[in-house]
């Protein structure tokens, strides 16, 4: 069965896109068939996968509005060995344009039904907002992965997100569950990060992935080459951490 994961956190810059791209590549490296959907008008996952957002023609925007079939937007065989539904800044307009369309929250879900059987995992990189785009991600997904930085305000934002997930479950997608919380950009020497991490484990128990993603410069550099870190520096701590995360998910 295809597993569809929304990678989401309304807080900006917590590592959603880095996780989407590198987990996609790591799962693909273990032979899984992977699709990555870029659901953010910033299009960082598109660029980080080696596709130019300035020149890409057919994107997730057209798919959501019903102007293109999802097959027409799909880019097969990126350098990370996964397929991609790209985005560009057009997507910023989709929110407003979708408002009057039927089933506006389920448009991605419906589109994915046409190609879902081609994949073992579909990862959806959500924008940093609890908006209609993110709602489409949460309605299409079976589970949510929440990347977070272990800092003071992280836990506060988390309760908003958990409430949103509850509401989506109640109104649209009863099967939606939290797959896991991922500690990103982790610095074990930072006492506050340790404390927040401890609190997180106390509250969420085994929902917190054992794998921790360290702060690693290679992870930050790789998007500049349009590559997942695995194909930029395979021995880096960042590459090894995302491989370990893929293994943790596959073994679960
Ligand atoms: P947004 O909310 O804007 O979509 P995001 O949650 O997708 O952001 P990223 O774009 O993945 O976050 O990461 C934010 C910045 O931090 C980027 O410059 C990225 O390269 C860097 N970064 C992410 N994870 C790491 C890491 N583990 N080590 C070092 N830098 C990282
Ligand atoms: Mg992002």
The CATH class assignment is: Alpha Beta
Tell me, briefly, the overall form. Answer: globular
In the CATH hierarchy, the third-tier topology is known as Rossmann fold
Tell me the span between the first and last alpha carbons.
15 Å
Radius of gyration based on Cα positions: 17 Å
Class of secondary structure makeup: alpha/beta
Helix content: 40-55%
Beta-strand content estimate: 15-25%
What is the average per-residue confidence, as pLDDT, rounded to a whole number? 96
In which order are the strands of the major sheet placed?
3-2-4-1-5-6-7
How does CATH name the architecture?
Answer: 3-Layer(aba) Sandwich
Quick one: CATH superfamily?
P-loop containing nucleotide triphosphate hydrolases
Oligomer: single chain
Number of strands: 7
Bound molecules: adenosine-5'-triphosphate, magnesium ion
The major β-sheet equals: 7 strands, parallel
Please, how many helices? 11
Q: Element order, helices and strands?
A: EHEHHHEHHEHEHEHEHH
The domain tally reads 1
Brief synopsis:
The protein is built from eleven helices and seven strands. The chain is α/β, with parallel strands linked by helices.
Summarize the helices and strands and which ones pair or pack.
Elements (H helix, E strand, L loop, with lengths): L2 E5 L8 H14 L4 E5 L5 H5 L11 H6 L4 H4 L9 E3 L5 H8 L8 H7 L7 E5 L6 H9 L2 E7 L4 H18 L5 E10 L4 H14 L3 E7 L2 H5 L15 H15 L1
This protein binds adenosine-5'-triphosphate and magnesium ion.
